Amino acid sequence: MSQIDLNKLDNMQYDVLREIGNIGAGNATTALSQMINAKIDMKVPKVDLLEFKELSEIVGGAENLVVGILFALQGNIDGMMMFMMDIQASRHLVELLIGNEYGNGSGEFSEMELSALNEIGNIIAGAYLSSLSSLTNMLITSSVPYMAIDMAGAILSVPAIEFGKIGDKALLIQTEFGDEERSVNGYFILIPTLESYGEILSSLGL
Amino acid sequence: MSDMIKVGMADLNVCTSPNVITTLGLGSCVGIVLHDPIRKIAGMVHVMLPDSKKILNNENKAKFADTGIDALILEMTKIGADRRGLIAKIAGGAQMFAFSSNNEMMRIGDRNVEATKLKLQQLGIVIKAEDTGANYGRTIEFYPETGMLLIKSVGKEKKLI
Hints:
The structure holds 2 protein chains of 2 kinds.
Chain A: H1 11-36, E1 41-42, E2 46-51, H2 52-55, E3 65-75, E4 79-86, H3 87-98, H4 111-136, E5 140-142, E6 146-151, H5 152-164, E7 169-178, E8 183-192, H6 194-203
Antiparallel strand pairs in A: 1-7, 2-7, 3-4, 3-5, 3-6, 4-8, 7-8
Chain B: E1 4-6, E2 11-16, E3 20-26, E4 30-36, E5 41-47, H1 65-78, E6 87-92, H2 108-122, E7 126-132, E8 138-143, E9 148-152, E10 159-160
Parallel strand pairs in B: 1-3, 6-7
Antiparallel strand pairs in B: 2-5, 3-8, 4-5, 4-6, 8-9, 9-10
C-alpha cells in the first residue's frame, strides 16, 4: 500500500483527487436536482490544498454563519465527509424543497426546515459516496447526518483537526452550484484517514 | 489607537497593551491566553490537538496543547514577560456535532481541554477563568490592559471572563 504525503502530492495524484471530487459532486448535484425538480448547474470543482489559516477564508471568513453536515465514513475507508454551505444558500435550498410556508418567521430554521436540510445533506452525501464507491470498487458506508449551524471556523475545526493529525494542510473540494435565479456555493470536504488516501489512490491503480 | 492582533488556527502570537489579541471561530480547538498582568503582556495560542508525541508530523508547535504552550511562553519572555507571573484563561474545546458514538475522533474538544489543563498544571500556571466544552463556536478577544477575555458566540450574549 502506498504511503501518501499530502504535502507532496504529484500531479497525477492531484488530478485523480480532483476527478473524484468532480464525479462525486456531479452525482450529488444531479441527485439534488431531481429532489427539487429543477435544473441545477454545477461549475467545475476546485480542488485546493489549503493551510489551516486559509481554510475559513474561502467560506467568507471564520465568523460567517454556515450549515455543516457531517458524516462518519466506514467500510473500506475510514474518515469523515462534510458538506457545508452558507446560511443563505441553505435557506434557498430548503425553500426550493418544501416551500416557505414552514418557516417560523424568526430567521431561524424551524424543526421541519432542519429536517429538510438534513435530508438534503443525506441525499447529497449519499450520491457523492456511492459514486466514489463505484469508482474505486470499495465499500463505503456513512453514518446518519450530524448537523451544526455555527461559525465557519468552528465547524471547520472538526475536519481541520483530522487533517491536523496527518499534516498542516487540508484538502478541500469546492463546488458551486445553482439554479437559474441564483447560484449557491457548497463545499465538500472529504477527509479519509491517511491509510484510506493510500487505499483510494491504489484502488485506482496509482 | 489599538490594534487587533489575529491568531489563526494552529498559530500563536503575542500582544502588549493597548493592543488586543483575538482568534476567530474556535470550535473543538482550544484558545489559550497567557497573561503577565504586571507588564501587561499577553500571548494567545490556538491549538488543534492535545499531544504532539502521538503525531508524526509535529513540526508546527502551535498545533498542539503541549508544545504550543511552551512555544508561547518562549515568545512572551522574549518581549519581556515574567515566566513566574503568568496566569491563564482558556476557551473552546466544544463538541460541534452531536455524535452518538463514543468514537475517540469525536471527543477531540474534551481531550484538547484536558491536555491544556494538564500542561498548565505541570508548569504551575493557574487558570483564572475558562469557558470550555458545550456545542457552539466561540470568537475570543483578550485585553492585556484589563486582563479580561471577551467571548462571542452565535445567538448568545457576549461573555466577559
